[in-house]
Amino acid sequence: MPQRDRPIVLGALAAATLLAWAWIVPMARDMYGSMNGSSAWMMTAEWDARHLALLFAMWIVMMAGMMLPSAAPVMLLYAGAARHNEPAHATTRVSAFAIGYLIVWAGFAVAAALLQRALTEALILTPMMEPATKRSASIVLALAGLYQITPFKRACLATCQSPAAFITRHWRAGAAGALRMGLIHGAHCLGCCWALMLLLFAGGVMHLPTIFLLTVLVLAEKLLPPGKATEWFTWATGSALLGLAVWMLL
C-alpha cells in the first residue's frame, strides 16, 4: 500500500458499511411494510437451523454496518504504521486487524441473536422484534443508562478514543499480531458499546431510526477527546436514558 493507505482503507470501510446498510435498510422497510419481501423469513413459525442462520447473519451485518464507521480512525493509523514497518505486507496486516475487530462483534451478534430468540419465546419481545411491554423497554433503557456512567465504560471508551496510544501499546508484528491487535481493540470497543447495542431491544431490533441514532451516538463517542468532554457526554446520555426509562414506567 505505498502511500495509498488512507484512500484504500477509507474506501474499503465505506464499501463494507454501504453493503451492510444496503441489506439492513430494505429488510427493515419491508418488515414495517408488507413483509412479503426480504424480511418474510422473520415471520416463520418454526425457527430451524436455516432461519437461525439468517438471524445470525442479520445481526452480524447490522453490527458491521453500525460499528465499522467508528473504527475508521484506528484502521487509518494502523494502516500507516503497517506501511512504515512492514511495507510489503501492509494490505494483509490491515485485513487481519479488521478481521480480528469483526470477529469480536460477530461473537456479540451471535449472542444477541440467541438472546432475541430467548426473549421472544418468553414473550418479552414480540414477533416484530419489539418490546412487548413498556416495563421491559424501560429495563433495557435503565441498564444502558447506568452503564453509561460507570468507570469501566469510560476506561474502555478512552482506549477507543486514543488509537495512536493503543497501537503503540499493543503493537505486534506479523499477520497473527495484527489479528491479535484487532481482537484487543474489538474487545475494548465491545466493552464501551455493548449496553448501547442492547437498546435495539428497547427501540426495535430492525427499527431504522433506532439503528441510525445508535450508529451516530457510537461514532460521536469515539470522536470525542478523552477527558472532561467524554465524562460530560456519557453522564448526559446516561441521565437521558435513565430519565426515559422512568418516563416510560410512569
Q: Any low-confidence stretches, pLDDT <50, length ≥5?
A: none
Radius of gyration: 19 Å
What is the percent of helical residues? Answer: over 70%
Instruction: Report the end-to-end length measured between terminal Cα atoms.
Output: 57 Å
Percentage of residues in DSSP E strands: under 5%
The tally of beta strands, per DSSP, is 0
Structural class by sheet pairing and helices: mainly alpha
Mean pLDDT: 91
Q: Report on the biggest sheet.
A: none
State the helix count.
Answer: 11
Judging from the principal axes of the Cα atoms, what is the shape?
globular
| Total domains | 1
Order of helices and strands: HHHHHHHHHHH
Set out the fold topology.
Elements: H1 5-31, H2 49-67, H3 72-85, H4 90-121, H5 134-148, H6 151-161, H7 163-170, H8 174-197, H9 200-203, H10 208-223, H11 228-249
